[in-house]
Request: fold
Amino acid sequence: MAKMIDPEFAEKVAKEGDKSLFLCYQCGTCTASCPSSEITSFKTRKMIRFAQLGLKDDILPNDDLWDCTTCYTCQERCPRGVKIPKIILYLRNLAAQAGYMADAHKGTAKNLFIFGHAVSFKDKHEKLRKSLGLDGVPHTTLGSKKALEDLKTIMKANGFDSLIGYKEEK
Ligand code: SF4
Ligand code: SF4
Reply:
């Protein structure tokens, strides 16, 4: 099937993502520098090219989009100063709004509802903290039920629970 080039989508990514998108001349330095591109099917240069051409259907449902770790190595090395991570994050926002957030990212996001943090907190962490002379539970949403409830209220008001498919267990 022929690929659907959508100039309006490309213009939107340049306008709301970053205008440096069209500076890319496809040298491939980003892919060669990218720790994720080395071990996954995600290829930075290719994703930027898709965006330049407005190949929306090759971007939004594409799981590769979620393999960028936002380490910024590509941006530091890009000879054209393309703000690659910013563009990728914008594309992810569009993908998430279209219902394509990767399952691994949804799982991480669900931790925010459970712990108030993107990472989990377990007994072993509590023990380790105590062994260092610290309070077992840090004074964050982990240690404050009210702070966690406040955070949940904000996330629900923004529709973040629906976006990540989170349902509170009763
Ligand atoms: S390093 Fe920059 S110019 Fe080269 S392909 Fe990547 S984004 Fe394009
Ligand atoms: S920011 Fe993303 S695309 Fe750029 S080098 Fe790091 S993992 Fe690769």
Summary: Residues 33-37, 44, 68-74, 84-85 surround iron/sulfur cluster (ligand 2) (CB under 6 Å). The mean pLDDT is 95.
